[in-house]
Amino acid sequence: MPGENLSRDEARERAALLSVDGYDVSLDVRSAVGDADSESGAPRTFRSVTTIRFRCAEPGATSFADLIAPSVTAVSLNGKDLDPSEVFDGARITLEDLAADNELVVDAQCAYSRTGEGLHRFVDPEDGEVYLYTQYEPADSRRVFANFEQPDLKAPFRFEVRAPEGWTVWSNGAGERTDGVWRFAETKPISTYITCVVAGPYHYVTDSYSRTFADGTTLRIPLGAMCRKGLAPYFDADDVFLVTKQGLDFFHDHFDYPYPFGKYDQAFVPEYNLGAMENPGMVTFREEFIFRGKVTRASYEGRANVVLHEMAHMWFGDLVTMVWWDDLWLKESFADFMGTFANVGATRFKDAWITFANRRKAWAYRADQLPSTHPITADIRDLQDAKLNFDGITYAKGASVLKQLVAYVGQDAFLEGARRYFKRHAYGNTQLGDLLSVLEETSGRDMGAWARAWLQTAGVNALTPQVLLDAEGRIDELAVVQEAAESHPELRPHRVAVGLYRRGADGALERYTRAEVDVDGPRTVVAELAGAEAPELVLVNDDDLTYCKTRFDETSLATLRAALGDMTDPLARALCWSALWNMTRDALLPAREFVGLVLKFAGRESDIGVLQMLQAWAESALTYYAAPEWREEGSRLLTQGATAQLYAAEHGSEHQLAWARFFARVSDEPGFRLLTDLLDGAATVDGLEVDQELRWVFLDTLAAHGVVGEKELAAELARDDTASGKRHQVRCLAARPSAAVKAQAWAQIVESDALSNALVEATIAGFGQPSQRELLAPYTEKYFAAIERVWAERSIQIGMHVVQGLFPSLQQSQATLDATDAWLAAHEDAAPALRRLVLEARDDLARGLRGQACDRAGVAS
User: Does the chain have fewer CB atoms within 10 Å around its N or its C terminus?
Assistant: First the structure.
């Protein structure tokens, strides 16, 4: 990996020197099918021929092109043949004595990927068919064709692809097959990382979108959606197209800039590392968004949100692109915000802001309290930094801050700023100041101070209410106290709503008054609420207008303990749950108390997404934050509670399905019999359909506790002999409670690169089981001995899987913390990205130990 890195300084120097006029890329992927890879261990390759036309501002200068390939056959610069062995080092092609106008031709043998980086090759075990797709962000197009791999060297691209007979090929532009070659229309100027090729015998469905604008012009967009043939029976393309059309209407209404990239294809592809990628005209998604079994509404809402997130990128990121990865937020924060904004405004998912408040912001709050937290506008020194910055800060905190910005400048001014931004910078590259300048124009506000407070500082503030009552029991003074972590002491301006709640005669806990106020500084008095009747609950950041951690005064906390389930407003309820979870993570609320609140009130939760989040948090509370001596009791309580809710939930409902999945995940020994009987058909739960996906959920738990073994898992794979079934089986096999099983799994992950990225993920997921802490203890020392070598030898994606997934997080002791600190002290010169991952894992471990101390004491630490 180190030789493949590109620094920001190098990129700046190259951008100052070069400008690119266009690319012609020819790929021959007929080698994707046929005989197995070479017995010598050499990778399966394909031919890649690239012609780049570019200009140089300083004739005679030296620069370089990027290419990661096993071999280069020929290099020609301005008609002169260069010796590949002299100019190509495995990652870069040196270009000397450049002319004012240049043409570079590179003929290379590039490698198919099994890690989801570059041109990924997947063989479907169900039918033996081969499927290809590309994934590049931030810098993996150089694994497929020679280029200048940085976002600010945009250019038009023309692709042509030779593929096996019977295949279809797609790229960013419209294509057609003539004389055995697929040729694609030239793109608009775009960055290298959003070019794309998808090829194979995909199941393909088409539709179309049209829109007539006020000036009488009509825009017609061909729509397509595709997946593997094996998933075709489950592919609900009509719903994908519905959300797509709703999104296109919404963004046309609000952006006043017609979709600029011709067609709009969406490919659901196997073994995908990300949720999705915004390649213009050819968006790629992980195929898990095609649901093989029954799922809850939250899953459909999540898919719609991703579809709209990627669509927003067509403007924020593709049409207008950041200069360098420092300003990654200019595309990801906006797309994350716009995904939910459009989901609420255009689709059937009108409660998407509740999901955002409860689920998405939880990601941001965690990331913003890690030692690696950073400003939204980050300091990205190189490509390894960039890879790790696709995180909760850049996405969810950035989107939260934009939600606050809309409240600050007004929605009309915000959207008018976006419209001017698109028109002013179309097909170009921008930095922070370019966006702030248009927002200042449209809002009349000084954006500099706002940007300094919200975009250029790190950390999350905590807001706590203080209530003083007068002799008559009314509010004499209500203030909001703002605090910041010592490491990030910035106190920010917040526009918040403060809601007052009390129980009515029917027992419902409802808001009876509300005030909006600008919180600034350590203490802000909410004068508008003076004289109001005494509240039972004060909810700071009601309606979720700002980005902060919400705390409670003692009266409010007592009310939640007694009556959280009586709160009628689903968003307010979700905000309270989020605040309680943050208190648990901060060792301000014992984990067993949080678990108790979930058991007491989660059965009354109406929002299915919130319910599923609560179930996940309860699992985490038991696994990481509960005192070890209470875990057995906690597991028993969760199993009992989940069993009761499974039978009490409406038959056939999504709530019943959520409780069935939760029951399977938390089951202790008495629950194993029911899981086994449900699998065998010896027992039923009225309304519950145990489909194939749910069967694998049950088998996960049974395998981890040794109730089923290799024989039963082989039989289940025979029942579900698909790519999805294989991933499930691999995970279950690695979950078995055996020293030999763990040793084999470790060797497959750490000592070999034979597994694909998806099977590495599955094996890691099975390897670490909370019920197997003693069995996993010997791997702490092995982990620290291996990670630097793994980081150096494997791709960054696989390196991240290994370093994050195998950290001994279940070995919760001071000894593990000391071992982590010892590694960090002894490896100060390790790759910064590697150290960041270890530091993050260390922080989670230390946080868990503080939570356990709080839980053991039963009081706030």
Answer: C
Q: Which residues pair with 515 in a beta bridge?
A: 498
Residues 6+ apart with CB under 8 A from 251: 259, 311, 312, 314, 315, 338, 342
Listed ranges 73-82, 791-800, 851-860; the one with the highest mean pLDDT: 73-82
* pLDDT tens-digit readout, 367-385: 999 999 999 998 899 998 8
Query: How would you label 492-504 residue by residue, b for 16+ Cβ within 10 Å and e otherwise?
Result: bbbbbbbbbbbbe
Residue with tokens 């003929």: 107
- Are 519 and 463 within 8 A, CB to CB? yes
Contact of 764 with 801, CB cutoff 8 Å:
yes
Assess contact for 567 and 376: CB atoms under 8 A. Answer: no
Tens of pLDDT, residues 350-373 = 999 999 999 999 999 999 999 999
Q: Which of 4, 310, 332, 416 is catalytic?
A: 310
Residue 842: count other Cβ atoms within 10 Å of its Cβ.
Answer: 21
Query: How far apart, in whole angstroms, are the C-alpha atoms of residue 398 and residue 202?
Result: 36
> In this structure, are residues 735 and 766 in contact, taking their beta carbons and an 8 Å threshold?
yes
Under 8 Å between Cβ of 806 and 747: no
In whole angstroms, what is the distance from residue 854 CA to residue 733 CA?
Answer: 36
| Euclidean distance between CA atoms 207 and 485, whole angstroms | 52
DSSP bridge partners of 475: 469
Q: Which residues contact 74 (CB under 8 A, 6 or more apart)?
A: 81, 84, 105, 106, 107
Nearest 5°: CA angle at 118, between 788 and 754?
A: 55
User: Does residue 466 carry a pLDDT above 60?
Assistant: yes
Q: What DSSP letter does each residue of 571-608 carry, written as one string?
A: HHHHHHHHHHHHHHHTTSS-HHHHHHHHHHHGGG---H
362-366 contacts at long range (C-beta below 8 A, 24 or more positions apart): 362/578, 362/581, 362/613, 363/392, 363/395, 363/396, 364/392, 364/393, 364/395, 364/396, 364/397, 364/400, 364/460, 364/547, 365/392, 365/460, 365/549, 365/578, 365/582, 366/392, 366/585
pLDDT over 60 at 860, yes or no: no
Residues in CB range of 787: below 8 A, 6 or more apart: 802, 803, 834, 838
Round to whole Å and give the CA distance between 10 and 171: 30
**What does pTM read for this prediction?**
0.95
CA 237, CA 244: separation in Å to the nearest integer? 10
208 near 244, Cβ under 8 Å? no
| Each residue's pLDDT tens digit, 630-659 | 999 999 999 999 999 999 999 999 999 999
CB–CB of 221/165 below 8 Å?
Answer: no
